[in-house]
Each structure stands twice: as C-alpha cells, then as structure tokens.
C-alpha cells in the first residue's frame, strides 16, 4: 500500500505533520473559511420574502424562481449560526440567523399535525400538497435549529427541535426493525422512495442519507438535551449503519427494505445500471462523510463499542481512498459500482463534486490524527486534497466553491453558486472542522 501512494504522489514533496506545518495549514484554512462566509452572507439573505435565496448565479446574484426547501433553508441556518459562534463580533450574523429561524419556524412547520414540509414557493407558501415529507428534511431542520439555539438560547428553538424528534418517533420510526422510514405523505402514511417504479428488487423504504443525517442531527441535539430515549436512538442508528448499511467490501449501500434487506437494481447490465445509478452505487463522498460522523458520535456516546465503530469508519475511509481517489490529478471521484463477480468497483462517474471534496478533506485529516503512523499516510492525502481544492474549486474572484472541478471544464466558472442542493453547509463544516482539529493537533 505504501508503494501505491508513493506512486500517486511521486511528483509531489511529502509534508510532515510538524507544529510549523500544522500552524501554517490552520491559518490557511481559517482564511478560506472567512472568505467562504463573506461570499455567502449577506448575498444569500432574501430580504424581500424571508429566509435564504435558493438560486444564485456565479457572481452570487439572485437568478431563478427561488423555490425554497427545508433542507436548503436549514443548512443555511446551521452555517450562519455556526458563524455567529465563531465570529461573535459580527452582529449581522446574529440578525441573519434570527431571520432564517423565523422563516423556517413560521413557514415550514406543519402547525396542524407537526413535522416540516419539504418545499414552498419563494414566499414560504405551500404550493403542492403531493410532495412527501422526508426524514432527511427533518434531520436538517433539527440540525439547523440546534445550532441556532446554541447562539440564541431561545427556548422556543429547543422546543421545536425536540418536537421534531418526537414527531419522527410517532410517525417515521420503525418499532419492529428499528431505524426510520425515509418518506411519509402529508396524511402521515409511510411510502417508498417516489418514482422508482419496478426498477428495484424490493420496496425502497429506508435510505442511507436519512439515517446518516439523523445520526448527525441527533448527536448535536443530545449535546444540549441529553434525553435517555434520544441516546437509545443514536446508539441504534450507529449500530444499524455498522451492521446493516456497511457492506462487507467496505462501502455503504444506498437503499433498503423495511427489514434492512439491501434493495438493488433488478437488471444489472451496464447500460441499465448507468440509467439508474442514483438508486444503487458506491458513493465515495458519503462513505467519507459517514466515517467521520460515526467517529464523532461514538466519541460522544463513550460506549464499549467505540473501537468497533472506529474500525468500521476506517474501512469506509480506506475503501474511498483505494478506489475513489484520482491518483493522477488528485481529488475524489463521484461514484462507482460493484458489478456481479467483480473484485473492485467499476468507476461510473469520474467527475469531482464540491461537497465530496469537502467531506474528504476533513475525513483525511481526522484519520491522520487517529492513525498518524498508518501506512495510508492520511496526512499526505489530506495535504494533497487541500492543494487540489485550492487550485480547482475555490473561486478567488467571486467567492465560494465551483460545483465541479475546474481542471475538467473552465465552464464551471459560470455555473450557479447556489441551487436547491448547493449551499455552504458542506464547505463551511469541512473548513471549520479542519481548523478546530488542527488546533487540537497542535
């Protein structure tokens, strides 16, 4: 394995994790974090209709119909609330956080039966009644509201986060097989993933995205509300990820039936798999993200299975490094697929997406601190990942990150900086986590 990575980085000088290097990297990433916040705020604040803009062009100017979703709005609430804590001298950040919480709590919460709606128009009006409510959406609502409560200390914020937890318990928790269903209609009936039809070989009722981000949200909620039932659920979800969702080869499966049987694409030819790849694939970014989320949750719980969790998290990280890392240019590929009887995943999409690079950056640094003498040399991989991001993802003219790698297409310079699935959540979190971890390592 050592020889493999010597080949990957043979033309690059390896760096050591000495105090001088750690200090330099910490200052460097802190500067990137400041620029990231400056680019997004106040550019994202919708002063006319409330909440945050969804659609911003490459110059961070509003451009689009501004349909709003709970996931996008909550991600902004989380990021600006974190910025409040990190940069308390900037009073504007608190105003933006108040602005975001007001919109989410007043426009997205279902006052009749609870839970957060999935989407609205720009004004926060529910236009469609046929769009399911998702556990994924509820998780980000909790995550953003908890971060807001930390800076505001408003009891109504904590109450809303707790109410969301209880709503999930009442309507989306599976008492028989544990975990949470992914989707529920607005009549509170559990449904499978919309639009999959007969493509899959089972009912698509539970998914990796929902479970991962519920772990993330519940972990943060537990820090300010150490409820016994909440702790049980966190422990259950962590165990489900390890025992049911991580496959023997070291990656996360996407979707599952009620009893946690993996749901797969029925017709596994290359062309058919490519058409429905979003339903079943190896997501190198999700694997890297899960690795550090699992590690942080196990650290919070401090239970006897922490070492087992770390082994599983390292398995995910090593799989992503081995099969997802671009050994020639740097960066992490989007996804691959295990065809029948193949020893390793076939690369299916070699594009490099901004959020994947961000998640990988922190994961590589985290594992360099946990396993400083490991043959993978995680610190060198982290350093090369940072260099790649700085060269091909940071927009030094208008701010923010490009959606895909600049070395593949210069057209990325004019692609939107914000849309329904792109905000500053992944990038802010990765940069802040790196700064804080580098400080600990020092």
TrEMBL record:
| Keywords, ordered alphabetically | Isomerase
**Hey, what's the signal peptide range on this chain?**
none
Q: List, alphabetically, the Pfam families matched.
A: GlcNAc_2-epim (PF07221)
| Record InterPro entries | 6-hairpin_glycosidase_sf, 6hp_glycosidase-like_sf, AGE/CE
Q: Which domain of life is it from?
A: Bacteria
- Write out the similarity annotation: Belongs to the N-acylglucosamine 2-epimerase family.
- Kindly provide the name given to this protein in its UniProt entry: AGE family epimerase/isomerase
Look up and give the organism this protein is from. Answer: Rhodohalobacter sulfatireducens
Classification lineage:
Bacteria, Pseudomonadati, Balneolota, Balneolia, Balneolales
